[in-house]
Amino acid sequence: MNTFFSSTFVGEEALKEAEIYHPIKLEYYKHTTEGTEKAENEAKFGINIIKKEYKKEGLKIENKELTGITNDEQEIEELLSFLGKTEVMPIHVIDVLKDIENNQNSEFNIMIHNKI
């Protein structure tokens, strides 16, 4: 089950730098596997990121869901907060999480190596 956590529009500076001239909204969701068959076999919490591009041709949607990242609800919420503040898009989330997982000084204790 996905629960809305936060959303943000990508800043104008970042869009101009990337030569993008339409709004992009990022939505972050907390994914919970509690009460499902998967819950017994994997960590309870994950994430889902949805990118919505409002182009002249219409709405373009991209998303990435990763389940079973951690059993700590506070940790997944802190991770979602970090991803939102840094405007991480679905296409980059795996690389960002790998960097976090491999950084021994990271404040997060996540496991994604077997989720990809």
Order of SSEs, N→C?
Answer: EHEEEHH
Overall mean pLDDT: 87
Question: Stretches where pLDDT falls below 50 for ≥5 residues?
Answer: none
Into which percentage range does the β-strand content fall? 35-45%
Q: Note the quaternary state here.
A: single chain
Largest sheet: number of strands, sense, barrel closure: 4 strands, antiparallel
How many separate helices? 3
Strand order of the largest sheet: 1-2-3-4
The helix/strand class is: alpha+beta
Total count of strands: 4
Radius of gyration: 15 Å
What's the helical proportion of residues?
25-40%
Instruction: Name the shape in a single word.
Output: globular
Q: What distance lies between the first and last C-alpha atoms, to the nearest angstrom?
A: 20 Å
Number of domains: 1
Set out the fold topology.
Elements: E1 2-9, H1 12-17, E2 24-32, E3 45-55, E4 58-70, H2 73-85, H3 93-102
Antiparallel strand pairs: 1-2, 2-3, 3-4
Briefly summarize what is shown.
Helices cover 25% and strands 35% of the residues. The protein has helices spanning 12-17, 73-85, 93-102; strands spanning 2-9, 24-32, 45-55, 58-70.
Describe the structure.
The chain has 116 residues and is of the alpha+beta class. It has one domain (2-102). Helix content is 25%, strand content 35%. It is built from three helices and four strands; from the N terminus they run E-H-E-E-E-H-H. The chain has helices spanning 12-17, 73-85, 93-102; strands at residues 2-9, 24-32, 45-55, 58-70. The chain has a four-stranded antiparallel beta sheet, covered by helices on one side. Strand 3 and strand 4 form a beta hairpin. The longest helix has 13 residues, at 73-85. It is globular and about 45 Å long. It starts with a strand and ends in a 14-residue tail after the last helix. The mean pLDDT is 87.
